[in-house]
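Can't attach files on this board, so I'm pasting raw text. These are the components:
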Amino acid sequence: MAPIIIFPTLLLAVQTGGASGAVDLPGFPEVNGFLDFMLAGAMIQSCLLAGNSGGIALAVDIEMGFTDRLLAAPISRFSMVLGRLAGTAALGAFSAVYYILLGLIFGARIEEGVVGIILMIFFVTLAAIAFGGIGAAIAIRSGSASVVQGLFPLVFVILFLSSAFFPYELMQEPAATVAEFNPVSFIVEGVRDPVISTLTGEDAWKAFVSILGIIALSLALSAGALRHRLRTGG
Amino acid sequence: MAAIEVRGLEREFGGGVKAVRGVDLDVAEGEIYAFLGPNGAGKTTTVRMLTTLLRPTGGTAKVAGHDVVTQAGEVRKSIGVALQEAALDPLMTGRELIRLQATLHGLPRAEGEERAEALLDRVGLDHAADRRVGTYSGGMKRRLDLASALVHQPRVLFLDEPTTGLDPVSRKAIWEEVQALNDDGATIFLTTQYLEEADQLADRVGIIAGGLLVAEDTPTALKAEVGRSHVEIAVCDGELKRAEEAVAGLGKPLPSRDGLLLLELEGGASGVAPVVRALDEAGLAVEGLDLVEPTLDDVFVARTGQHLEGDDEPAPEPVTAES
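---
Top answer:
Structure tokens for the assembled complex are below.
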């Protein structure tokens, strides 16, 4: 729970407390408050960390041989990955609800109301599956918890090179261009849209396609890594 | 039908390392077959291929009548597996682990719970069923692993070094359980690096070294290959000649060593009593008498030139190979 709740909550508190004046900068999207803007970033940060933690847990299972127990059972071998992703999805849904409640308690306003809340939970849950899939692929391919854990800092690089914590319109080049095309930005915007404005549809659509793309890619990579592991023994 | 049929099984890893180099073996239904060899001999790699956890790079293998590559799903339905270093989640309780295993094998919930109760009782873990596995001793973990492998009543049970690292009491408990399972009709394929384990448990032993099966037979037949039992008799000074005369005809005399009379016995242990009687009738005072039996280590030495136990070095190239 620490990675998905404590770290993002602390970062959210620090950023909201220390950088809330950023909303007055020219080019900053029109929002009711900085917390409204930051909620989506905290949720996606939580998803990325949930994916990383899920990958570490899977790698530990591989290291200690627990996955052999699953692979020797008469079930689909990919269910080992799907089971892990189901757990990560539950964490994503939990994190979405947690940050929405936290935001509402501290004065955030969700423009799209209940529909917006449902959409946010939906996207964050799917995003957790997408990032969990990447963690699973790396875990299966490497079979090493330390390798997956070593990717932890990369989560923050990905986040800071997206619109999670700052609008890319206000970033310097080349970070602005990277953030503009970073799929994480599309997902963040899709989650943020119902909070700060009425639904445009375009942001939601882009987020949905980005998430599905990452899910498809990560599942394909996981399946390939699993085949490789079974073929080569490591 | 053989429970396990293996022909020319090979496994090559990256860099051209051949862990298994053309193993042939047959294990009959209801048999306990022990795969004996030192670390790095290819035992675990063979088990991983037979349990569908690793694809062979050559040869064929059938388990319970199903090909391990093309019918892997059927193989997995038919086997129970307890791998080296019992792979148990330390956060689960013993009961939860067996229920999980029952679910993985598609048992209905009620049946799974019933089996869990029965198996935990069978392996003597009923008192610890609701404790986390992380609090179990090594022997308890192995017994739990064994119980979980039995949840779906498999036709063939694979045990990869089931007693490695266990204390003698725990080891004996596992042996008794394995024997009891075999008495109930299970075919058991076990790997071990312990001579005594193979000798005590197995109907047949396959000795593997350097990825090759270098010998295979019953423990008795294998030991007979390298010589018969002999007795070492210590008599009083100056009595050696008289002792030799007294036991003449009761066995084949071997060259004396360290003042001991050495006599090879055709009938093994049953030949000791006539020797003792003959020495007694001749009025000789016997200071000591030891029956020395050939061991599987002697077989291993004869086939590979190296001892099996207490040697963690990689196995040498085999001197001979049976295929």
